[in-house]
Amino acid sequence: MTRRRTDGYGRGRLVAAALALLLLTVVVRPNIATAESPPADRSSFSPDKLTRVGEFIRNEVATGKIAGAVMLIQQHGRPVFFESFGVRDVESGRPMTADTIFRIYSMSKAVTSVAAMLLVEDGKLGLDDPVSKYIPGFADVKVGVERRDESGKPVLVYEPANRPITVKDLLRHTSGLTYGFYGDSAVRKRYANSDLFDGDFDNAAFAERIARLPLAEQPGTSWDYGHSTDVLGRVIEVASGQSLFAFEKQRLLDPLGMTETAFHLADEAKPPRIAQPMPNDRFGGPVAGIRDPMLQRRWESGGAGMVGTIGDYARFAQMLLNGGTLDGRRYLKSETIALMTSDHIGPETGIARDQFYFPGETSGFGLGFAVRTSVPPNTSWPLGEFRWDGAGGTFFFIDPRDDMFAIFMVQAPSQSGRIQLALKTLIYEALGR
Known about the structure:
Layout: H1 14-28, H2 47-62, E1 68-75, E2 78-86, E3 102-105, H3 108-122, E4 142-148, E5 154-160, H4 167-172, H5 186-192, H6 203-211, E6 222-223, H7 228-240, H8 244-256, E7 306-308, H9 310-321, E8 325-326, E9 329-330, H10 334-340, E10 352-353, E11 363-365, E12 370-372, E13 386-389, E14 395-399, E15 404-410, H11 416-430
Parallel strand pairs: 6-10
Antiparallel strand pairs: 1-2, 1-15, 3-7, 4-5, 8-9, 11-12, 12-13, 13-14, 14-15
Helix pairs in contact: 2-11, 3-7, 3-8, 6-7
């Protein structure tokens, strides 16, 4: 499975859309401050051009590329487009609705990153803290270097790390930890053939196992997408004294009203609400170790394990867009949000980017998000936009310049890169950019 870059450089009738819009207005409960009249220099959406967004998604359903989807575009604290399309699952024929549950895969990373920053503000976690302070197994990590022996055969040599992995490294993916489900380097193969996902393990066991594997690069030298956020989940557990989900539920999910977001589906009534990909567009096995969310397992993957609804993620996105507040409650300082959404791997840092570098050449990476640092060719997309996506096709982006965000929920792994680029183009055309 090859993960696609995040940039690339029917239930859609008026009555249903109106009901859906009303539903999300209730679900999202926008902060009053975001619903004020927009500043004069901000763009506004063209209702006529927004119809092209719906037309595109309806065509994706009609041509059999996706089973169904839910799309939300929200500006100034209110939905400007919210519609459900197609079905949750072509085999059951259940219609797609606003309360459909999706596997959000790597969109979990943003939630885990915010949870970590809550602890940073609490003074229980430091960005420059060595990970070994919380997980002793990381005190003696090794870096895997490919060399050739006397016969010319490639071998993997383990070398000492030049410095400790820090919490900041986990947040910005510069720890050297990688994934084993794509790429063919010797280190990635070592991950793929390890015992990382054997049995029913918890976050502590996962951290112990991965600490024994070699790093793909020296800490702090290269952006490499991998299990960093999973390890961050264990750091959160140690620093907070709670399980990852218990901490996130207490400090973030429940206060935000994200009651449908979890690592597993404990409620027997929820499985019929899960969206499924087309039968010919399903992963052949677990991705990054993530299995069926209906199976109760102890591992809470902060990097890719969450499921949730678009309404839940909308409240999370609005809080971020508001600079850390929602409904009069502050979750993070505005300075913390600004820090998280600034580029931390720019040229001045000397940090390289691996051959895959999913954010694309016009983006850097912050503490949990890709961050727009230059305008892509042939677009007028704004600087400062931050975003991420999931292997199943879900994506979100938050645009402070235009006081808006968009979330697309779908389960269509092979279509994700193409659809994301097309929708983003249509959205900004509707915004007049």
